[in-house]
Amino acid sequence: LSSSSASSEASSSADWPETVRVAVRVRPPLAREVSTEELTVRAPGEVTAWPDDGLGPGPRYSFTFDAAFSPSEGQAAVYDAVARPAVSSTLAGFNASIIAYGHTGAGKTHTMEGAPDGAQRGIIPRAVADIFEHVERSARPGARRFLVRASYLQIYNEVLSDLLKPGRNGLLIREDRKKGLRAEGLSEWVVRSPAEVDGLLRRGAETRATAATAANDASSRSHAVFCLTFEQSEASGGGEACPRGSVFRSSKLNLVDPAGSERLR
Question: For residue 207, what are the CA distances in angstroms to 86, 130, 163, 204, 210?
Fold first, then answer.
């Protein structure tokens, strides 16, 4: 897992002062892995691996990250430590990204999406809930307004496609002075509740490319980027929503679920 914020100032209140943070999550071992590899997670952020190639245990390898999560730690712990600071940065007006990386079957999609509700909710539904709770708590009619827009992009065989507009393929990356880098022609949808966001996620999942692998019957074969654009306007005089002299801020939260890479052994 990797999260980043476009501003160190926005993340200064978080536990990790850096703008780029890397965490590792260890999933429960499969039956065939129990006798071949031992993993130990130590706080804060250290993972020790003791592989066994069949000829006996090999040397121990230790790796240090900004945070490490053992198989016993749930979705809430991962979100609070890794994703919540990035979401807070987005609400403060800064761009942020959360990227899950690992081999196929490592649990990337489970970590990013999980279940739509309950304790198994992943990073995306939890982030969406926090954003709309902030909107509901902070909006003031006639003085402060918010707009949330969503888009869902797939990268498969180096071709960019719109997961929410089937058939809209071959999108091109353009650079705009005001909007920065963007995928030309990518649809954006105004969303007003977590339920509407969940509907878009389900629609996109039906279009996303998957295939069976040795480790996963429905492995994601494409990179997917779910982007939430968060806009807020505040009238300095408390009049119209966005008059001359008002404050307008726009930020993006990119939630990335890459294709699963194959294990070397």
Answer: 28, 27, 6, 5, 9
Strand partners, 69: 25
**Residue pLDDT, tens place only, 173-185:** 888 887 778 889 9
Distance CA 32, CA 29 (A): 8
Burial-class residue 56 by CB neighbours within 10 Å (0-12, 13-18, 19+). exposed
For residues 186 and 171, the answer to whether their CB atoms sit within 8 Å is: yes
pLDDT in tens, 247-264: 888 999 999 988 876 554
Q: How far apart are CA 88 and CA 131, in angstroms?
A: 9
pTM to 2 decimal places: 0.79
Residue type at 219 in one-letter notation: S
End-to-end CA distance of the chain, in Å?
22
DSSP collapsed to 3 states, the chain: CEEEECCCCCCCCCCCCCCEEEEEECCCCCHHHCCCEEEEEECCCEEEEEEECCCCECCCEEEECCEEECCCCCHHHHHHHHHHHHHHHHHCCCCEEEECCCECCCCHHHHHCEECCCCCECHHHHHHHHHHHHHHHHCECCCEEEEEEEEEEEEECCEEEECCCCCCECCEEEEECCCEEEEECCCCEEECCHHHHHHHHHHHHHHCCEECCCCCCCEECCEEEEEEEEEEEECCCCCCCCCCCCEEEEEEEEEEECCCECCCC
| Residue 18 and residue 61 in contact, taking contact as beta carbons nearer than 8 Å | no
Residue of 101, 91, 159, 104 whose CA lies nearest to 131 = 91
